[in-house]
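Why does this matter for the project? Reviewers at the last site visit asked to see concrete outputs rather than summary tables. In response, this paragraph embeds two records directly. Each consists of the residue sequence and, immediately after it, the corresponding structure tokens. Nothing has been edited or filtered.
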Amino acid sequence: MRTRRRNVSKDHLTISTRRSRRKKTSPNGIENSVQIPVDLIIEILLRLPAKSIATCRCVSKLWGSVICRQDFTELFLTRSLHRPQLLFSCKKDGNLFFFSSPQLQNPYENSSAISLMNFSLSSKISRPVNGLICFKRKETNETVTVICNPSTGHTLNLPKPMTSIGAMSFLVYEPVEKQFKVLLSYESEEHQVLTLGTGELSWRMIECSIPHIPGLSEICINGVLYYPAIDLSSGDYIIVCFDARSEKFRFITVMEDFIKAAHDGILINYNGKLASLVSERDCFVDGRSKTIELWVLQDAEKQEWSKLIYVLPAWWQDMVGTLDLRFVGVTRTNEIMLSPCYQTVPFDVFYFNIEKKTMISVAIQGMEAFQGHIVLTYLDHVENVKLLQNIF
């Protein structure tokens, strides 16, 4: 059998296959394979969806080595930041299913959701951070903390912590060192943290000066994890701020009116600032809703907040009807995005322009099999093509 040549040089790729081979003949009659510049190969791969790139790794060691290059994965992530996706998670029969759809710049068009992966679930999932998700699932007789890349279908089981009883899992990304970390928050003064990408994975204890009960909403902004909590010593509502780089905690005391927004509503990223959306029905709106409140943390050090109240237009009830809509977040063009709590047919997401007082609905197709089941929608999801074992 004739051996195929696959060599990688510093500046060029030499690609030879039996099925497709372009040759040049030198003056002495020796045939040479055509060399394709690495930059051109990378440019071609950058145009593929993440799931296709994950498949291309299996073509050969040559393809795998190019795709796993750090410059390629960082380029792909950078481009993904400029073409964000909507990520949907659907729960059915004890399993969790992921779908993605383009986050349309022109929301007048319908969109189709693409199935990504599914697996068993035993706890809530964290909000996507730089394309990855953290959750817990049952395997045999134990519960395992898992990192998941919905775009590629890869998962990685984390080592068993010293104790996982009563722990809430949070994923955070530190942009300076480009590190992912997982925080296990307990109702005590001690928590556990694990840094990914440092060789052997191991949990370590860190101290927290205020024992607290974590809430269910969280957001990671510029390397800081924010989540609502109840101070066990005083009973006050607080916002916990965990700095991923220093691994230090600080706390923000919230005013009484913000309790509803932070604890029952949803924490969001509003132009790089911590914010929350709330209505008369907490984190939900329907046709009867009259206003939407947007709370923004203007100064974290001084703990200064601002509150904006948007009165909903008269046509709101006719357009929303009896749908129960959940706040998803605010887009980069200052549109409040809302999504149904359950899969409906048709399944429409809504963009409410807070300045123009206009709203557009976008039909998402492809999830009809989950009609009547819970759907969670995430804004600004990015595709990360790096293999989990390479990240960690």
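We now turn to the second protein, recorded in exactly the same manner.
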Amino acid sequence: MSAADPHDYTELASSIRQWSRELGFQQVGITGIDLPEDEARLMTWLEQGRHGAMEYMERHGRRRARPHELVPGTLRVISVRMDYLPTHAQDPDEILQDPELGYVSRYALGRDYHKVLRRRLAKLAEKIQAHSASQSHRVFVDSGPVLEKAFARNAGLGWIGKHTNLINRRAGSYFFLGEILTDLPLPVDAPETEHCGTCRACIDVCPTQAIVAPFQLDATRCISYLTIELRSSIPEQFRKAMGNRIYGCDDCQLVCPWNKFARFTSEVDFVPRHALDGTKLIELFAWTEQEFLDRTEGSAIRRIGYECWIRNIAVALGNAPTSQEVIGALTSRRDDPSELVREHVSWALAQHAA
């Protein structure tokens, strides 16, 4: 299809699917821009304060469900997904059952997905631009006020499960999402329907009971929020439940029966780096700030900063079996320059004293 023939949008949509596969995406779908029900749910969630310290969620508000206000002229959302489950990572259940090791969410073990997907999406957008009369498009990878899961559902990529993650019948839920907002009136795909049924495995397994009802997540209770988004003190009521989870939490995905269909990624960028798929907490706790910066270069982990990284590990060490080695490591940071770190170290030491 040439730039001189911009009106054959069905042919263009077919080409977009081919290009997306060539760029390493496992699936692509196209949907419109109307999300009235999702917008209403978002506003209720915000009114309930379930976004916690994520003030950017409130700042953008309704705009997340209105892409035409974000990028004027938007008519369609092109949604893509890319699998991230690494083939060579240590077994997640084994890590969670060993309190001396630090658990990092599977999505963060390799290269920062924002960079990987954004680069591929930009190439896809360039191809679309070169073969159409588009005057407006913009690429997003969890980086702007877009209700990506709702658009992905409407584009047929999966349904939003009771844990509020997107689930695909043939690929589970271990995948990243990205979007291109475009002014092209492309034909839309049929939305996916919900297939959770009576299952409540994710609700029952959540260590902090963050899934307060089916399809309702209180982010302020979620370990992913507590270890990644929250920059202040972690509420004591959740610290024991965090166990050895030092960056994110996968429990709701690990028990989801649909993840028996999850597919391993072929992307070398998502291969675990620096043995973060199962390193001893004491070793991680001993990292200097420079070692943290060096070993998280190009990783999504770096965004939380060194202080919160040590804060999280201090909590995990408080939950670890008592030993001279653990107490010695914690004691070494009792006078840490960071008040935040000192507070969590003090709590951890108190657990062993008890």
